[in-house]
Amino acid sequence: MNLFSFDAEASVIGSAFIEPDLIAELADIVKTDDLYHYEHRVVWGALINTAKQGGSTDIVTISEYLESIGVLDDIGGMAALAEMTRNTPSANNAKAYAEIVADLAQRRRLADLMPETEATFADRQSDTDTLITQAVSRLEAMRRSRKNQLLRAADYLGEQFVDPLDRRANGDEDAMGLPYGLKELDEATLGMKDNELVIVGGRPSMGKTAFMMNCLRAALNTHAPVLVESLEMKRPALFNRLIASIGDIPLAVLYDPRNNDIDAYWSRLSFPVVQVKESNLYINDETPRTISQIRAQAKEIYDRHGRIGLVMIDYLGKVRIEGDYGSRHDRAIEEVVAGAKSIAKEFSCPVMLLSQLNRKLEDRPNKRPNMGDLKDSSAIEQEADTILFLYRDEVYHPDNPDSKGIAEIIIGKQREGRTDTIHVASRLANARFEDLAPRHYEESFS
């Protein structure tokens, strides 16, 4: 079977000459490189470009354009264009011709991919898991490219804007995304929203893992499937923190129960253990992991449940880079951050990516982090929808009673909202952040 159709390609072009109003619709289905024959690629490219510029797309005008760039004779002259038009059975079937051309183009790409993949797999120096995820990613990209991504504004306004707005106004739908589990932060951000990338940055000892546990607690309450890529902490340590956070149990009790009166906390263990056992929580602690491998795991969960509530990656610096960028560390960061954002958009879920901050902030008097403290920050600033910084002043000023047990969550960027600083209670011994009691808040920050 030939993986091309001369007649279908010619009929797409002929239909465009017969009914110029079809060009925009056909161009969404058939790209120039979908056409197998050189003469068809040249003519179709000329039709699309001329139509985009608002020019006439009749045979004479296109012929003059092709002659001006010196290719008219190469494709058979004006007679070839007339023949395409004359031999087109019916412009009413233009979309069917276009679908045939697009389908055959995908089959050719798939056929080209197979020997290339075979050769790549024969390279014993390459990691097998990485090769598999790369092959799957390429196949998935081919599949997605077949879908028409063009969305009419009228369709969006009706189905995805006005209708949800009306439901929220009537109280039939909550405006809140996936909550962080901290009241004031949730009010300031409306939670973590689908398709969004949330960056959480902080220096060591600021409580990034405890903050992650807070978000994980809130996510488990929604019963949504959650994927945690724990690239720094092994699974047992992460489970200890999660159980401690849910049950409000000191971590020391779980690590050394014989010397920390486990009996006093035994009754608190049952709920977190049952909640985690009954959840759709998936934890991977294998390292190193590439962003392609993380995406493949997210795809597996999505296929199993039909949705993902949240993807967490701890942390950016531990994700293995696939590209060879030499000394361009910023390009490596861009690969991971752009990949994380792509996961959020592909699976319509929030992705939380933890990040370390530059050591240089330790050298200045005010050590509260800002956007410039993100390592190679340009790609992070561009891709992230929300950027949060964690800061505990008591780490630097342990003798200051006003900062004891207080943490600041600094909203450095919020694409759909304001920047702000939220003060919360820091209880890292129990792997928790909590809302401040109103009286405590008034006394400390009035």
UniProtKB/TrEMBL annotation:
It is an enzyme of class 5 (isomerase). It catalyses: ATP + H2O = ADP + phosphate + H(+). It comes from the Bacteria. The keyword Phosphoprotein does not apply. One of its GO terms (cellular component) is cytosol. Its EC number is 5.6.2.3. One of its GO terms (molecular function) is 5'-3' DNA helicase activity. Residues 171-440 form the SF4 helicase domain. InterPro entries: DNA_heli_DnaB-like_N_sf, DNA_helicase_DnaB-like_C, DNA_helicase_DnaB-like_N, DNA_helicase_N/primase_C, P-loop_NTPase. Belongs to the helicase family. DnaB subfamily. This is DNA 5'-3' helicase. The lineage of its organism: Bacteria, Pseudomonadati, Pseudomonadota, Gammaproteobacteria, Oceanospirillales.
